[in-house]
């Protein structure tokens, strides 16, 4: 369901037609967290690559270090891995400061723009993953809160209970990345690309858990009535209908990512 939902997001289509740094940044961020879940030492290499793509992705390195240390109690091993992963980013920053290019020029650009914080990005970072589901200018705040926010909150609660280590990593990266962009003073839709899959993941977990709860409530009665197979087919049809509906109503004609 997460890939289907991601395929409905405006930025997925925008970056497919006008790719900038976001596709590779998103790939390395996802790869980092997948390798973190697998407890692979290559997670630090993926984080280093993500940090070289854009500045805020460097938040992955301390997240990996702190969570791995907390769960494995192997301080020096993870401290050394995090230090090595930081070297490319620090070199990029250092050479940029010396030569006037690279990551430091990115920070200089923010300074030249006035460097006013952009708290509106916090709203953008949650709204944008679902932006393809409705037309610009429509007032869907109440339905959005019910249909998007509530399942995501349930998904976070479920994930914290069942996959705490990975959930904390995703939430920490999402929070630190969004905070960095807010401090840089940027409120552009395309900056949500590396983290919007996290929102969609928790949303999908919440939706499936709600469906599972509804099935458990209805299954005993349906079994007594002899219509349990029909109930299963109805739930599957509902999931398929939601996916097809979200694809059919997605509107990308008004995208202005830059």
Would you write up a description of this structure?
By secondary structure, the chain is mostly helical. It has helices at 2-7, 10-17, 22-37, 43-53, 60-72, 75-99, 103-112, 120-127, 141-162, 164-184, 196-225, 228-249. α4 runs parallel beside α6 (75-99).
Task: Lay out the secondary structure.
Elements: H1 2-7, H2 10-17, H3 22-37, H4 43-53, H5 60-72, H6 75-99, H7 103-112, H8 120-127, H9 141-162, H10 164-184, H11 196-225, H12 228-249
Pick out its properties:
mainly alpha, 0% strand, 258 residues, single chain
Structural class: mainly alpha
The radius of gyration computed from the alpha-carbon positions, rounded to a whole number of angstroms, is 21 Å
Q: What profile does the largest beta sheet have?
A: none
* Mean pLDDT over the residues: 77
Gross morphology: globular
The total count of helices amounts to: 12
- The unreliable regions are 246-258
Count of strand segments: 0
Helix/strand order, N-terminal first: HHHHHHHHHHHH
Beta-strand level of the residues, as a percent range?
under 5%
Distance between the termini: 28 Å
Helical content class: over 70%
Short description, anyone?
By secondary structure, this protein is mainly alpha-helical. The chain contains twelve helices and no strands. The longest helix is centred in the last third of the chain and has 30 residues, at 196-225.
């Amino acid at each position: 369901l997460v890939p289907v939902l991601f395929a409905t997001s405006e930025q997925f289509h925008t970056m497919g037609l006008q790719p900038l740094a976001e596709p590779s940044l998103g790939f390395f961020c996802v790869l980092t967290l997948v390798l973190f879940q697998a407890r692979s030492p290559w997670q630090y290499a993926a984080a280093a690559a993500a940090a070289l793509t854009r500045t805020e992705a460097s938040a992955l390195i301390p997240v990996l270090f702190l969570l791995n240390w907390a769960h494995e109690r192997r301080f020096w091993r993870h401290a050394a891995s995090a230090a090595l992963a930081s070297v490319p980013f620090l070199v990029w920053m250092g050479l940029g400061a010396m030569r006037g290019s690279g990551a430091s020029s990115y920070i200089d650009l923010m300074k030249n723009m006035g460097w006013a914080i952009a708290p509106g990005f916090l709203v953008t970072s949650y709204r944008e993953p679902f932006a393809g589901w409705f037309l610009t200018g429509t007032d869907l705040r109440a339905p959005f809160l019910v249909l998007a926010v509530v399942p995501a909150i349930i998904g976070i609660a479920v994930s914290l209970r069942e996959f705490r280590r990975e959930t904390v990593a995703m939430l920490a990266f999402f929070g630190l990345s969004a905070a960095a962009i807010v401090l840089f003073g940027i409120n552009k839709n395309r900056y949500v690309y590396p983290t919007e899959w996290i929102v969609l993941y928790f949303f999908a977990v919440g939706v499936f858990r709600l469906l599972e709860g509804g099935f458990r409530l209805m299954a005993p009665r349906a079994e007594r009535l002899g219509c349990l197979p029909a109930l299963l087919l109805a739930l599957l049809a509902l999931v398929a209908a939601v996916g097809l509906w979200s694809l059919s109503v997605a509107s990308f004609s008004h995208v202005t990512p830059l």
